[in-house]
Write a structure and sequence with these properties.
Order of helices and strands: HEEEEEEEEEEEEEEEEEEEEEEEEH
Shape: globular
Number of domains: 1
Number of strands: 24
CATH class: Mainly Beta
Helix content: under 10%
Strand order of the largest sheet: 1-24-23-22
Distance between the termini: 52 Å
Largest sheet: 4 strands, antiparallel
Strand content: 25-35%
């Protein structure tokens, strides 16, 4: 099987398809960066992929409840939806990214016809200097288990390719090792998965001792210790590719401190946990650690968010933590660098609205999707943030299914800790 599949991506407007061919503009600081009063944090780019975008493949969404038209989207879908991005990493060339959806429709029961993939995308970010704001979708990596490494029955277990589906795994975080291998954080069980660069599962899942949810196929009558859908939503890799840092989205079920989230260090070379762990305190017990990326060998930027959507999405922050900076009570010390519920948009990049009735646009700009779940450093002062639109969820608009949004946020001194302390 080839590394990546070619595909036909269906976008609902001819204009959007034409604009997708536009070249990606360089990313940088805000247009006003050469003035004395430019904002330390600013929206500098935005690109949107329509919710109705489709890729090649079999019909999908036949088990979604209810079927029919939901928020403008008809279920089942005629082929594979391109939606639900929970992780973004660099692609093969400048301006290209590899974006990975999660399990599809939110549960094992309704996602058995959603194929697990990661798509190569090229956003033509709308910036103060131009850009169409359109995302073009190219080929993709298809995750599969032809060598039967996963160790339990999967939905496509009798097919030669054994393509993985949303009934098998819930991939939420993605990183690439120096040799090109892909490492995935799974939310269902939870565990860490190791794939080749073209999506073949290399090893059995790496479990975390004592951490099992009700979705773990090897629970064997034991009591679950982790709530369902609160697994490895966030996972970073050090710039040298030696270590993964995987963070649980939610607290352990029996933990008396429901604000506590554990971060585990995993050696890529040894394919094993190192035994080192850290603790992170969320602002509220129901808030989630939604993604994480490395700024250097010991500093990480992470998303902490609430479960709100639309104008009720009031807490979603980008925080920087230093693995070498732990408080006396044993917790990492977060420093908030961006409030995603109020991102300065001095150049009004987010306007005009794409759909009548869109909310959260203008200055300040608000990330309104329920699940903002992807953060990726683009350069020393720019972060790419992506939304899992949870098709056919609402957020940006009270009556239109959320599109997949990607933004670029400028942060002064992002990779210089002394500047962040100013």
């Amino acid at each position: 099987m080839s590394t990546c599949k070619s595909m036909a991506v269906v976008v609902m407007t001819v204009a959007a398809m034409a604009a997708a061919a536009a070249a990606t503009l360089p990313v940088g600081s805000p247009a006003s960066a050469d003035t004395a009063d430019h904002p330390r944090v600013a929206l500098v780019g935005r690109a949107v992929l329509p919710a109705a975008t489709l890729a090649s493949g079999p019909r999908s969404g036949a088990m979604v409840d209810p079927l029919g038209v939901v928020n403008g989207i008809t279920f089942p879908r005629p082929s594979q939806p391109v939606q639900g991005f929970s992780a973004v990493i660099d692609g093969r060339t400048s301006g290209e990214y590899l974006a990975m959806p999660d399990n599809g429709y939110g549960s094992k029961i309704n996602s058995g016809d959603f194929l697990i993939r990661a798509y190569y995308i090229r956003p033509d970010f709308k910036t103060a200097r131009g850009g169409s704001g359109v995302v073009s979708v190219g080929d993709y990596v298809s995750f599969r288990d032809p060598n039967n490494r996963i160790g339990f029955e999967i939905a496509n277990g009798t097919s030669p390719d054994r393509l993985l589906t949303g009934a098998d795994i819930d991939p939420e975080s993605l990183q690439r090792a120096p040799n090109g291998d892909l490492w995935v954080g799974d939310e269902f069980c939870p565990w860490i998965l190791h794939f080749s660069s073209d999506g073949v599962l290399i090893d059995p899942p790496f479990q975390i001792p004592g951490v099992r949810s009700t979705n773990n196929p090897w629970l064997d009558g034991q009591q679950a210790t982790q709530p369902n859908s609160r697994g490895f939503e966030a996972m970073a890799i050090t710039p040298d590719g030696k270590y993964l840092y995987a963070a649980l989205e939610g607290a352990n079920s029996a933990d008396k401190d429901q604000y506590r989230r554990y971060v585990y260090e995993f050696s890529v070379a040894d394919k094993a946990l190192t035994g080192r762990t850290w603790q992170y305190h969320t602002t509220q017990p129901n808030y989630m650690v939604a993604d994480m990326a490395a700024l250097d060998e010991h500093r990480l930027v992470l998303i902490e968010r609430d479960g709100g959507k639309g104008l009720n999405a009031t807490f979603r922050e980008l925080n920087v933590v230093d693995l070498n900076d732990v408080s006396p009570d044993g917790f990492l010390r977060p420093r908030t660098v961006v409030d995603l519920s109020a991102v300065p948009d001095p150049d009004l990049i987010s306007l005009p609205a794409i759909h009548d009735g869109d909310v959260g646009l203008g200055n300040p700009f608000r990330v309104t999707c329920e699940s903002v779940e992807a953060v990726h450093p683009v350069n020393d002062s720019t972060l790419l943030v992506g939304c899992d639109n949870n098709l056919p969820n609402l957020g940006r608009n009270p009556s239109v299914a959320d599109d997949s949004e990607f933004i670029l946020v400028h942060v002064d001194g992002l990779k210089r800790s002394s500047d962040l302390d100013r």
